[in-house]
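To close the chapter, one final illustration. This time we ask the reader to focus less on the individual chains and more on the assembly as a whole: which components sit near each other, and how the overall shape emerges from the parts.
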Amino acid sequence: MSSNSIVGKSVPRKEGRDKVTGRSQYVDDMVLPNMLFGATVRSQIPRGRISKITFGSGVAWDEFVIVSAKDIPGKNCIALIGDDQPCLANEFVNHPEEPILLLAHPNCHLLPQAVEAVSIEYEPLPAIFTIEESERRSEVVWGEDNIFKTYLIEKGDVDAVWEKAEYIVEGVYTTGAQEQLYIENNGMIAAFDAAEGITVWGSLQCPYYIHKALMTLCDLPAEKVRVVQMETGGAFGGKEEYPSMIAAHAALLAIKSGRPVKIIYDRMEDMAATTKRHPSRTRHRTAVSKNGKILGGEIDFTIDGGAYATLSSVVLSRGAIHAGGPYYWPNIRIRAKAVATNAPPHGAFRGFGAPQSLFAMERHMDRIARAVGLSPVEIRRRNFLQPGQTTTTEQVVREPIDLGKLLDRALVVSDYHAKKQRFVNLNRLGTTRKGMGIAAFLHGAGFTGSGERYLSSVVGVEGCADGSVRVLVSSTEFGQGTKTVLSQIAAEALGLPYENVSMAQPDTLEVPNSGPTVASRTVMVVGKLVQSAALGIRQTLISSNLLSDTYTADEFRVACMHYVAAHGEFRSWSRYEAPSDIFWDDQKYRGEAYAAFAWAVYIAEVTVDLTTYSVSVDDFVALQEVGKVLHPLLARGQIIGGIAQAIGFSLYEKVVWQNGRMQNSQMTNYIMPTSSDLPPIRVFFEELGNVYGAYGAKGIGELPMDGPAPAIVNAVEDALGVPFDSIPLLPEDIMEALDKDGLAATAQDSGVSSTGVV
Amino acid sequence: MSDSRESLTKVEISFTVNGERKTVRAHPMERLLDILRQQFQLTGTKEGCGEGECGSCAVLMDGILVNSCLVPVLQAAGSNVVTIEGLAAGETLHVLQEAFLECGGAQCGICTPGMILAAVHLLNGTPNPTLEEIREGLSGNLCRCTGYSQIVEAVERAVHPRTTA
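The assembled structure is written out below.
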C-alpha cells in the first residue's frame, strides 16, 4: 500500500453533509404529483378463516381505492426463499397484523378512520404462541409438523464422551424477541405506467429482493420493475425482507389507481406488524474433563419463526454454526430447528441467529466454570480454538488468531482482576452489588456456506465522461458507511483522491445485483469486487495507451475523458468467484462456513441496585479482531452502536406478547437505551488482515451484537451469585429471583423494593 | 372549543421560521411538524414516533427545544422557530454540524437534525457542559445507530474545537 493510502483513514462520510443539514431525501420527504396515500387493513386475530368483510357507514368509500388479494396480477406471495407468505390474506389469516386489504386516498388524514370502519368477521382457529406449544403439535399451523427447517451438525462421536466425562454440565437459555427500532419507520412510494412498468422508491436494504418480489407478484419481466433506494434512516436487518411486503402493497394500489401511492407506517404499525429478532431456546449438555477441557457436547438450538418461513432457515443456519462459540469441540452434535407459531414472522436483525446461540454458549461457559471450579477466564483459555484446529463444521482455522492473547489484553484494559478483588470487599456492604462478566465469541462474515457462490454478486465501476469515477452497486447505505468505505476502496485501487469517486444511487435500472446489504458482507465481499472492477478501469486505460503505469489524478481524469469520448460508456464489471480453497457441503452441513471470522472478547462491569433491582453497566471493554480497519471512525461507530443495541437486548427491550400480538408497540413502553443509560464503551481493535477481503478487511457490522448480552448477564451473576439464563433481564426478574433466594431481604428496605423500573 | 365545526375551520397563523416570516392557513390543531414538512417543504425535521418520545422532530421554538409532533400549530403563532435548515449560514456549517461530521455523530442521519438542535439548545443554556450534562441534555433524543458516544464527543468537540482529540 502506498504511503498516502486512503483505506485506514477516517475520510469524511460521503453523504454526511446532507445528513447534518437535513437535506438528505428519505422516502417520506418525497412527493409525487397526484399522489395517494395508502394504508393496510390487518388481521385482528392470530388464526382463522375470514368469513365476511363489511365496509362500515360514515366513510365515502367511492373516494377510496380498495385492493384485495383478487387484484394481484401474478402470484399472491412475497417471493423470498419459500414463497409461503401471502402478500394479502385471501381466505385464512395466520397471525395478528396479517395484511388483508389495502386502502388509498388523496387525504392521508382520512385513512385511519377508514381502516377502522372495515370490519372483518372470522371463524377463529386455535393458535399457538410458543416454541413449546409448536413442538407439542396439538395444532399444526404450518406444513405437516410446524417445522420450517432443521439442521444437524455432527463432529466426532458425541455418544462416546459421556462416560469419559468428569463433569456433565447442563443448561437451558432463552432470548426474547427484539424490535430493530430504526428511527425512520418503514415506507415506500410506488408508481405504475403500462409502458414503463412499476417503480418503487423506499427505505430498504436489498433492492434486488424487492425486484424479485415485485416481478412475481405483478407478473412483470425484470425490465419492467425498478427499485430505487432513498436515504434510509436505520435498518439493522429490519429493512431486509419486510420492505418487499410494503413495496408490494404500494405497487398494487398504484396499479389499481393509476396514480403514485405512498405508504408510510407510523411507529405503532411498524413495531406491531413488521419483523423482530427470533425468540430462541438453547439447551446445552456438555462433557468436561477434570481439568476443564470440553470433551464434547450436545446443543439443541430452537427458534420461533412466527407464522411464515420467510428468512428463518438462514437465521437458523447462522445461529447453529455459531452455537459452539470460539471453542474447540472434539465431538459435538448441534440440532437446530425453526418452528412455526401464530406471531408475525420473525426476521433479520443484526447478528441473525448468532446473538441467540452465543448468549447460550457464553452463559454456559460460566456455568461450566462453576461446575469445574475454574474461573471464567481460565475455562475459556483452556478451550479456545487454536489455529490448525477445526470448528464445529470442521472448518480448519487458518488465521493466526490467538484468542488467549486477545483475552489477556481485554483483562488488562478492563482492569479485570483488580476490580474483581475490589468488588469482593465492596459487595459485603451497602445496597449495591458489583460484578464483572466476560464473553468470547466470533462472527462469520459473508453469506453462510455456499451462499456467496449462489449470490454470484456483480459490481461495476464506471469511468465517467468528466473523468471522475462512479461505483455501481446495489449495496445500500443505511448508516453503516457503505458509500464511504466502497468509495475509499475504489479510490485506493485507482490511486485517486477519495473526492474523485462517487456512488451511484442504488437503482435497479442503473446498478447490477451486488447482493443484499446484510451478513457483514459489504466491505469484505462487495469491497473486494469493487477493488477488482476499479483495477479493470485502470488496466483498460493503460492498455489503450491513454495512461502510463504511474499517473497523477489529473492524468487519469484526462485519460478517462478521452476514453469515453472515443468509445462511449466505460464500465468495468467484476463478478464473485468462490476461492478454490473454500468448500462447503450443504448436505452434511460441513466445511468452510465462512471465508473469514471476526473474533472478540468483551468485558462488562455492572452494578445491581438491591433497592430498585436495576442493573447499570458501568464500563464496557470491546476488543476485536476484524481484519484491516478501513475507516477507524466508522468502525468504532459500528461497534459502539451494536453494543448499545445489545445492551438494550440484555436489559431493557422486552416485547410483551398477548395472543401473538405485541402489546407495547410504542417507544413509550418498549424501552431502548438513551444517552443517559449507556456506559463509556471502550473499543479496541486487533488487525490480523484477511486474504479474502478488500485490503484485508473482514465483516464488522454484526459482531458487536453477539457478545454484550452474555458478558452483562455473566457480570450480574458475578455480582449476585445467582444465575440468570433468560434475556431481557429486567428488574422484576431479578427481584423475583432474589426474593426466592432470600437474598433481597438482607440489604434493602422492602417498602420501596417492589417497583423497580429502569 | 364551543363548536366542533369551529375546530375544523382553518385559521391564519403567522410565525417566523429560520428568520423568515411565514403565514399559513391551517387547522389550529395541525401538528407543527406537518406544517413545516408539508407546507414549507422543510423536510429536515423528521417524524420518528409521533408521540414525543424520540426527539427526531425536535425544533427550537423561541429558543426552547420542542417536539414538533406534539405542538399544535396555533401554539407556534407569533413565535420564532428554528429548524435544522436554519442552522448553517449559507454553505458555512454551524460548529455543531461540523463537529457531528468530524466525530461520526451522524450515521443513518434520521435523528441527526433533532439531535443537533438538542445540542444547540444544551449549549445555549450551558456553554461549557460536563460529560454528565451532555448525556442528560441529549437524553430526550433517541439514536439507534451510534450508541451516542460519537454524538457526545461531537458536542465536546464543538465546545473545545482544538483541545479535544
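Chain B touches chain A through 53 residues (CB under 8 Å). The longest helix of chain B spans residues 112-125. With these observations in hand, you are ready for the problems at the end of the chapter.
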